[in-house]
Design a protein that fits this description.
Blueprint lengths: L15 E7 L2 E7 L3 H12 L22 H13 L10
């Protein structure tokens, strides 16, 4: 698209990405340095980058539904490599 500019952030240098250890395992956490960037990220990740209003009361959100296709392909390749042929005995 000729008019597409991508995600423009006010303070991209203040973004932080941390890996938080939780009961469910490691989860990535993105911390925006300013409110405008937080709103832009929420709109980009949950509203298909459309300018939907984000309430001022929202200070955090959980985003789900993204698949890491490279990791899925690696798991599948590993699983397939460890499968035995039908009719053969497994060790």
């Amino acid at each position: 698209m000729a008019l597409a500019t991508g995600l423009i952030l006010k303070e991209p240098e203040s973004l932080q990405l941390i890996i938080h250890e939780s009961a469910a395992g490691e989860i990535p956490v993105i911390i925006a340095g300013c409110r405008e960037d937080f709103v832009s990220l929420v709109q980009a990740l949950t509203k298909r980058n459309e300018p939907h209003p984000i309430p001022d009361s929202m200070g955090a959100t959980m985003v789900s539904g993204f698949n890491n296709w490279d990791r899925i392909r690696q798991y599948r390749a590993s699983w397939e490599a460890n499968q035995t042929e039908p009719g053969s005995e497994s060790a």
